[in-house]
Amino acid sequence: MCGIAGLFHVGTPKPVDPARVRQMTDTLAHRGPDGSGVWTAQGVGLGHRRLSIIDLEGSPQPMHSSDGRATIVFNGEIYNFAELRRELAGLGAVFRTDGDTEVILAAWQKWGPDCLRRLNGMFAFALYDHGDRTLFLARDRLGVKPLFTAQLSDGSFAFASELKGLLAHPLLRRDIDPRAVEDYLAWGYVPDHRSILKGVEKLGAGHYRLLRHDAEPARPVQWWDVDFSKRHSGSEADLSAQLLHHLREGVTSRMVSDVPLGAFLSGGVDSSSVVALMAENSGAPVNTCSIGFDVAALDETSHAQRVAALFSTDHRERIVDPDDFGAVDSLAAMFDEPFADASALPTLRVCELARENVTVALSGDGADEAFAGYRRQVFHAREEQVRGLLPQGLRGPVFGTLGKVWPKADWAPRFLRAKSTFQSLASDGDEGYARGLSALAPEQRGLLYTGEMRRALGEYTAEQPFLELMRDAPARSGLDRAQYADLKFWLPGDILTKVDRTSMAVSLEAREPLLDHRLIEFAAGLPHRSRIRGRQGKYLLKHTMERYLPDDILYRPKMGFVTPVAQWFRGPLAGEARQVAKSGALAASGWLDSSRMATLAEDHISGRSDNSRVLWQLMMLERSLGRLSARV
User: Fold this and answer.
1) Which terminal CB of the chain, N or C, has fewer other CB atoms within 10 Å?
2) CB of 48 within 8 A of CB of 64?
3) pTM here?
4) pLDDT at position 416, please?
């Protein structure tokens, strides 16, 4: 795993200062503490920071092809590189190293952009072709590895693994994009179609971009997509056998490493499944780690211990104080953009624990998106049944009225908190799912905005790109469209961003075997009954893993990493909650109503309502804007 950065001149190929590229890559040292390199030529410069995983001594970067006609900087892992190497060698390619980087170079020279379809892995890379004088930027199918880009005022095109790599360049504009603030307040993160800074873009998951010195930068090209419009046939036993095959391939392919390897183990279905298949494929005990809390309602360590004992893993755990809010400023520095998923804190802690013993850790991320494991997906499928029975002409007025008059009872038992369900049923399925996924609904955001912000946004709302994605999805049902949006929008923007930044902050490579693209493509074709049965999501996955895991692991309620933000803002962070309304960075923006923010804080501290989520969002936004302005 690594960090990459570089510059490419469009128009007149000017000389590139190696010191400038090195300055950009030095900000990414945490991504690659084991080595660094810079290469420049007329009009192009490539920089690299290396975390050694495969071919520890033999694959320094930037790397040149054996014939000197191409140069690459690469972040990620290609899991099928050995098979590709044998194929390419049979076609005449010459290799000087034993790693995967040189395989990408040879694949490019043989197949051009089509080489991407042959790569099984997580990656973001920049490849300069000396003959065509082109720069080829590419990102993996699901967006596991990030890539930020920007057009600079001198005509150069800059790229980096993290925003901080671009911020190291003095010509990058630091103008905040109001639409990114709208997106952030809606979702809790800045999605991949936007950046917090105007003029900065993220290369989308499953996209590439080809740039030439003598032409304006071409728009990104989508080279992969997932198709939910087809259905597999066959018995449940046949589908289960196929699923197990894909699961095994995903796990075993990600166990190749020249450094110590382990796994995160929460005791939930997904991480336990990964550990079970790792143990099946390993002659030595699997290294596993988990964190727990000293609050019983938040703690899963007993489940993790049971799975560890079942597979005789070398297990380590650490109890973390749930009042672990001291890393807030560190999180803002890791993410650069505002990021409000509070589970980033425990994710960072488990990465720190893993890094004490291993350099690579496998995770269970991706199964909820692929197999319909989120409660919101199960609810959405049931709501779609209601929509199918009642016409919109009836649903809209009835449920719309109920949604308006029903109290927002945060304190009540879940079955009495029906306001959001009524609001969702009053809308069409796509709009209802967007509302259910959002951190703050449009009307809640509107209460926070000043007139200046409303004018800056015009007719734009954060839901528009999300709804376009759902409505254009290659899908047959509402559940298909919801899962498609989760894989294309939520997964890269929230889950994979969280894991990438927290793992890379401690120089740990995290691998996601349940995001093997063959597994994702198979899961997309499963019948509904193989995904959701009754109130149970991930049905076929759980059924398939019954041969490995006990029922009380497979079928217990989902927990996930829980951070007690609500308690923090009524206790040790109450002062922070009040300070948000007085924040210099937020006040200077002119976008948010200070009196409204103050009311939110006081209502939460007094216990009149639970405003913890929006207060956390505002606090992380304030921290992020403060850091960005400090860089100017």
Assistant:
1) C
2) no
3) 0.93
4) 46
